[in-house]
Design brief:
heterodimer, A: mainly alpha, B: mainly alpha, Arc Repressor Mutant, subunit A, two-stranded antiparallel ribbon
Chain lengths: 291, 130
């Protein structure tokens, strides 16, 4: 039986990367869901107080894909549930803000700063993730009460981040499908070439050589198809993604920022096509001498 | 040398079409080479007595160069037909030009007389497709 060597290409590395990022964004969606639920359980302070209006609304940029670029105006948060309210009866507003901060630290924080080498202050992460206004409202030093408006603001931001992360995760799923198709082509071609190499061209007759040439042409056609499909995927942006400010090309740019090539699928398909073309030339060289 | 053959073929075809001399720019364009690389190769062909080369005017095949190019062109035409009609190759002309210098006239003649003749016979016997 033939032992098939594993040929590692940029596509295989890209598939690993897309898989790990999809897991990270899945965890991020889950983290925001849990954070949202825990904040929803914290009752708002009966006395009214607004989110500070003097705080700047500018947000710190992050290098993560467009999850930070989506609008943040949608709020699906409702009033706190009664069971949660019962639990917090009598709690001071500082306690409530601290509860929210703790919830953030236990849910979102691990998924937010996992790739940051130096630990950053909790409120800095809250500012980055949920906005300056929310960070100021939840800070222990500003004396802001956990009003219903503050609560709505926190829940709205959490909902937006969750939606954005879900959109990126879907884009990563599409990227994974595109990479799977390309990896299948790579495996098919490399396996075929490896097996074909076991029989020298000099031992093949005209018909066998012609069949090899035909097979290589078919592989080159598949390379062309892969390039076309890939370019179509790179241009793809769904309406959900448009709303969240996520374009597939931006996801790809982020994913492969440290790769030696900008477009792993396209460069691999080009290499594969060049290999098949070179093989075809060798086959043709023998074919013209078999006539 | 295969590289030489491709230059000779381009010069031969261009001379047949428009007469000599052939501008280096035309040769460079046909072979997708840089102007500097083309000039260098034309000068090498001149040193081997296959072309005369005048800067700013172009290259002209010598009698030896034309004889050699004519042989190459016969092989090239046979290969082009073979690649197009038997192998269904898209870029048959460029590929034939690349291989022509490595195929002897004897092999090319055999290819032309056997395979292509058989192919022609099959085509004559087959009913018209579609």
């Amino acid at each position: 039986m033939t032992t098939t060597a594993v040929v590692e290409t940029h596509v295989h590395r890209a598939r690993d990367r897309a898989g790990s990022e999809a897991e990270a964004f899945e965890a991020r969606v889950d983290a925001y869901e849990r954070f949202h639920d825990r904040v929803a359980d914290v009752p708002a302070d009966p006395s009214t107080a607004d989110i500070p209006t003097d705080a700047t609304t500018a947000r710190a940029g992050r290098t993560a894909p467009a999850t930070r670029t989506a609008g943040t105006t949608t709020s699906s948060a409702g009033p706190a549930g009664s069971s949660g309210t019962q639990r917090f009866v009598g709690a001071s507003t500082v306690d409530r803000c601290e509860t929210v901060r703790t919830a953030f630290a236990e849910t979102v924080l691990p998924e937010s700063v996992a790739d940051v080498e130096d630990a950053e202050p909790l409120l800095e992460t809250i500012r980055t993730e949920l906005s300056e206004q929310v960070a100021v409202a939840l800070a222990s030093t500003t004396g802001t009460t956990f009003s219903s408006e503050v609560k709505r603001g926190v829940l709205a931001e959490a909902e937006s981040r969750k939606r954005e992360a879900a959109v990126v995760r879907r884009a990563l799923d599409r990227e994974a499908s595109s990479l799977d198709a390309a990896a299948t082509l790579v495996d098919d071609v490399t396996t075929w070439i490896e097996e074909a190499d076991e029989t020298p061209l000099s031992e093949l007759g005209f018909d066998a050589l012609r069949e090899r040439h035909r097979q290589l042409s078919a592989f080159r056609d598949r390379c062309d198809g892969t390039v076309r499909d890939r370019q179509s995927t790179l241009r793809a942006t769904t309406s959900y993604e448009l709303e969240a400010g996520v374009r597939h090309r931006a996801v790809v740019d982020f994913l492969y920022v440290d790769f030696p090539v900008d477009y792993p699928v396209l460069s691999t398909a080009a290499r594969l096509d060049a290999t098949c073309r070179s093989c075809q030339r060798a086959v043709r060289d023998h074919l013209v001498r078999r006539a | 040398m295969p590289g030489d053959s491709q230059y000779l073929l381009v010069l031969y075809v261009a001379e047949q079409a428009d007469g000599p001399p052939v501008s280096p720019g035309h040769v460079a364009g046909e072979l997708d080479r840089s102007p500097a690389a083309t000039t260098e190769m034309l000068q090498r062909l001149e040193n081997r007595g296959l072309v005369t080369y005048e800067p700013y005017q172009g290259a002209t095949l010598t009698a030896d160069g034309r004889e050699r190019a004519a042989d190459l062109h016969r092989t090239y035409r046979t290969l082009t037909r073979f690649f197009r009609e038997v192998l269904d190759l898209d870029d048959c002309e460029a590929e034939a030009r690349q291989l022509a210098g490595t195929v002897s006239p004897t092999v090319a003649d055999r290819l032309a007389s056997t395979l292509l003749a058989d192919d022609d016979a099959e085509m004559r016997e087959s009913p018209p497709s579609k």
